[in-house]
Amino acid sequence: MRTLVELLHGAYGAAGVQVASVTVPGEVAPGGENDPDAIAGHYWRLHTRPRAHWQHELVHGARPLA
Fold it and tell me: Do 32 and 60 touch, CB atoms closer than 8 A?
């Protein structure tokens, strides 16, 4: 999955298409370490991040980048 995302990010990023993945290390469950609302926040940050700060992968639970 990571390789596909990296390839698509490289191929289409210059055309204004952001391709990214969110990696969740473990079971997704409400109220737990991998709460769906917290994970949704990663998708929102990817969606609203300016092009100059695009990333092709976010890892849930990892220290967020500025």
Answer: no
Cα 23 to Cα 14, 15, 58, 63, 66, distances in angstroms: 23, 25, 6, 13, 18
What is the pTM assigned to this prediction?
A: 0.73
Q: In angstroms, what CA-CA distances link 25 with 19, 28, 29, 39, 56?
A: 20, 9, 12, 11, 17
The C-alpha atoms of residue 14 and residue 30 are separated, in whole angstroms, by 37
Quick check: helix, strand or coil at residue 49? coil
Q: pLDDT per residue over 9-36, tens digit each?
A: 889 988 999 999 999 989 999 998 899 9
Closest CA to 21 of 4, 33, 34: 4
Do residues 56 and 5 touch, judged by C-beta distance below 8 A?
Answer: yes
